[in-house]
Each structure stands twice: as structure tokens, then as C-alpha cells.
Specification:
Fe-only Hydrogenase (Larger Subunit), Chain L, domain 3; 4-stranded parallel sheet; iron; about 450 residues; 4Fe4S_Fe_S_CS; 2 domains; 14 strands; globular
Length: about 450
């Protein structure tokens, strides 16, 4: 494919930049990170978030927001901590809602990534999630939810990424695969209904841990990032004329749980590690600032071809109900043989709680769906399925409120880290009304 050859941009922005040492701690966008890039380690044994008891005020906010109850009191003074990483889904909502900045991340690939960006023999590939482009601008003073996809691609090139590909490409693939799988289940009954979505790593770890008996209800599709990783090192490598062994793939996510997913031992379908590193929106923003890049003045640029194209269906992937809406578009047309007059099925978009809908499909009947925002709501739907009482064909689950746009790796709510508990409380109340959404 023309124009998809790996570029080797000048490293002017990185010249003289001091690479954070392994094991050192760096504060990025209000969150402390340990420079720690684990290799050949079972990610289920890693504590991706930790509580600093020197900062913890025993307010219990983290425990309140923990969807599994793994964040508990661990001292007589009421200080909280993760009691067992196996039961932690790594969603980071404890971190995002801590009013004292007492929770930090224990895994960061930023130091290693800098070394790879500076290495002329390594082809560094960026793979940003849809949600990142709706939050990154906030770190540079832009209003909440401002779309900055073009500037994001431009910044990645200036940081030295050789191939700027996009996870929206495989969000479209996921929609086609998940929609096709649903059709097979509905038409032929070869797998049980309802079918659950499988793109959210926090939800998948939750289901594997607490509802292993429902495994066959989970879509067999990998998540978009788990698809583009191996595609980058197979099809993408071929199209770019780059040996896969020279590639270093970087997942850029709104989500701490994606670090866990990228490290899962089975993520090696390409014959290599499919995902070499995962960074969050916060870490990317810090890197852009550290390099001295004037983000708001950047031109809007497109991703590289081969693995860079996408549709609007991929974009809405990052909001709760978006996966459902996109898959329903495909299922509707395949089942009915017709075309939707209006492709927007906004009735399934969900900010909080459980949203249900019945979608009439000509030549088929009614497709019954449910969308759960948050794992406490997902558990209710799981219990129905376990009891054999679920009326639905398709269920979407997002761990974070409102979907990936409000993930644990996104910029913190302005004012959350306040020395005054009163100010931080007001911020938490306002957060209900300022959460990101995708129109």
C-alpha cells in the first residue's frame, strides 16, 4: 500500500531529553508513576495501583469506587490498600476519584519507550484508542471532550514514532466480527445467548474471576488493541516493509487495565509480543510536554495507511453503548436485508446504570439488548444469565462510568487534587455533570 513505509523522523524533540531511569518515580499529570516495564511476569500478580499511606487520609473514597471490593482497610488507622491483585480489575477508578492523590501507578513503560524512540534500529508503532483523542486536549487547556485526533497523530510523529497507526481501524474489525458472531448465535444457536461484549479488559478480568461459568457467553473476539497488535507485526509489517522483530508496538489507552491486557501471556499471536508497551493518555500528555511540543499549534494530520483508516462506528466505541450501537447496525442490515434509515441508535447509549432496549428488525423480530455501565450493574445481568432468566440477545459491559472516555488512565478531573476536602468534594459532585461523552 502506497505511503505506508516506516518513516524515520528527526529526533530533535528528544535530543538532550533525560530518560527516566528504571525504578525511578515520575509525576505525570498529577499522578506518580514508577518506571517499571515488567517482562515475562504473570500480570495477575502485579499491583498496578498502590496506595501511599503517607498521603492517605482514610476517607474511604477509593473503597467506595472499587467495583470488586479489593480495596479495603489494611491498617487500624483505616488506611486502604489492594488486598489481593488477583481480584483487582485494574480499572483505576480508585485513583481517578482519590481526593488526596494518594494512589499511584506501579507500572510505566515510558522510560523504555524513550529508549526505543531514540534507537535508530527500532521501528516504533503507535496504536491509540478512540477515547484518547477526546481527552488528550484537556492536558493542554482545551475544553473537556474536545476532539484532537489530528493533533494527536501529529504529536506522535514529532515524538519520533515511525508508524502512526490507529486502534480505530480494529475497532471497526471488532464490530464486524462481534456482529457476525451474534448473528451466528441468533440464527444457528451454536453458542449460548446472550452474547457479552469482550472489548473491556476490566470487565473480562471481572468475568473470568467471578463468573467463570459464563465464559461461553463472552464474545470470542479479541479487543481492538489485541487485534491491531498482531496485525501490526504481520500484515502491517509486510505492508511497511519492516521486519516484525524490529517493531516495538505501543498501545496508547485511556485505561490502566489495558496494561494488564497487553501483558497477558496469550498476546503473542504474531510470533512475538503483540503489544510491547502500554501507556495512558496522561503519560502521552506528559511526554508531549516534556519534549517541548506546542500541542495546540500542531496541524491536524491523518494516521498512516494500512492500519490507519476507520469509520464513525469505531469512534463511538469509546462511549458506553457505542459498541452495542455499532454492532446493531451490522446485525440489523444482515438480519433484515435492508438498510437503516437512520444509523444512530442512541437509545442504547448509557451514561450510568443499566439501559435496555428492544430493536425491531424486519424479517426477524425483536432484538433485545442491554448495556451496563459499571461492574456492579454488570453483576446484576450476570446473575440473571447464571439463573437462566436473561431475556437478552446481546449485552455490552463497560467497567468505567460512561465508557472508556472516563477510564482510569484519562486526565484527572480539574480540582480533584485539592488540599481542601471541601473543594475536592465539590469537584466530585461536579464530576457527575462534566464526564466526557461522544456525540
Amino acid at each position: 500500500m502506497a505511503g505506508c513505509k516506516a518513516q524515520h523522523p528527526p529526533a530533535a524533540y528528544l535530543a538532550g531529553l533525560e530518560v527516566p531511569a528504571a525504578g525511578s518515580e515520575v509525576t505525570m499529570e498529577g499522578v506518580r508513576y514508577k518506571m517499571n516495564a515488567p517482562k515475562d511476569v504473570d500480570p495477575a500478580t502485579i499491583r498496578f495501583v498502590e496506595v501511599d499511606h503517607d498521603k492517605c487520609m482514610a476517607c474511604g473514597e477509593c473503597e467506595y469506587h472499587c467495583p470488586t471490593g479489593v480495596m479495603q482497610e489494611v491498617t487500624e488507622d483505616g488506611y486502604r490498600g489492594v488486598v489481593d491483585p488477583v481480584a483487582c480489575v485494574n480499572c483505576g477508578q480508585c485513583l481517578a476519584n482519590c481526593p488526596f492523590g494518594a494512589i499511584h501507578e506501579e507500572v510505566s513503560f515510558v522510560g523504555e519507550l524513550y529508549e526505543k524512540l531514540k534507537d535508530p534500529d527500532t521501528v516504533v508503532v503507535s496504536m491509540p484508542a478512540p477515547a484518547v483523542r477526546y481527552a488528550l486536549g484537556e492536558c493542554f487547556g482545551l475544553p473537556t471532550g474536545t476532539y484532537v485526533g489530528g493533533q494527536m497523530h501529529a504529536a506522535l510523529r514529532r515524538l519520533g514514532f515511525n508508524l502512526v497507526w490507529d486502534t480505530e481501524w480494529t475497532a471497526d474489525v471488532t464490530i464486524m466480527e462481534e456482529g457476525t458472531e451474534l448473528l451466528e448465535r441468533v440464527k444457528h444457536g451454536n453458542m449460548p445467548l446472550p452474547q457479552f461484549t469482550s472489548c473491556c479488559p476490566g470487565w473480562i478480568k471481572f468475568a473470568e474471576t467471578f463468573y467463570p461459568d459464563l465464559e461461553k457467553h463472552l464474545s470470542t473476539c479479541k479487543s481492538p488493541i489485541a487485534m491491531i497488535g498482531p496485525l501490526a507485526k504481520t500484515y502491517g509489517a509486510q505492508e511497511a516493509g519492516v521486519p516484525a522483530k524490529k517493531m516495538y508496538t505501543v498501545s496508547i489507552m485511556p485505561c490502566i487495565a489495558k496494561k494488564f491486557e497487553g501483558m497477558r501471556p496469550e498476546m503473542n499471536a504474531s510470533g512475538y509480543r503483540d503489544i510491547d508497551a502500554t501507556i495512558t493518555t496522561r503519560e502521552l500528555a506528559w511526554m508531549i510536554k516534556k519534549a517541548g511540543i506546542d500541542f495546540t499549534s500542531l496541524p491536524s494530520e491523518e494516521p498512516d495507511p494500512a492500519l490507519g483508516m476507520s469509520t464513525g462506528a469505531a469512534t463511538i466505541f469509546c462511549t458506553s453503548g457505542g459498541v452495542m450501537e455499532a454492532a446493531l447496525r451490522l446485525a440489523y442490515e444482515a438480519l433484515s436485508g435492508g438498510t437503516l434509515a437512520d444509523p444512530d441508535i442512541k437509545v442504547v447509549r448509557t451514561h450510568e446504570g443499566i439501559n435496555t432496549a428492544e430493536v425491531p428488525v424486519p424479517n426477524f423480530g425483536t432484538v433485545k439488548v442491554a448495556v451496563a455501565s459499571g461492574l456492579d450493574n454488570a453483576a446484576k445481568l450476570c446473575e440473571e444469565v447464571r439463573a437462566g432468566k436473561s431475556p437478552y440477545h446481546f449485552i455490552e459491559v463497560m467497567t468505567c462510568p460512561g465508557g472508556c472516555v472516563n477510564g482510569g488512565g484519562q486526565p484527572l478531573e480539574p480540582g480533584m487534587l485539592q488540599s481542601s476536602l471541601f473543594k475536592s468534594t465539590i469537584t466530585k459532585i461536579n464530576r457527575r455533570f462534566t464526564r466526557r461523552s461522544v456525540a
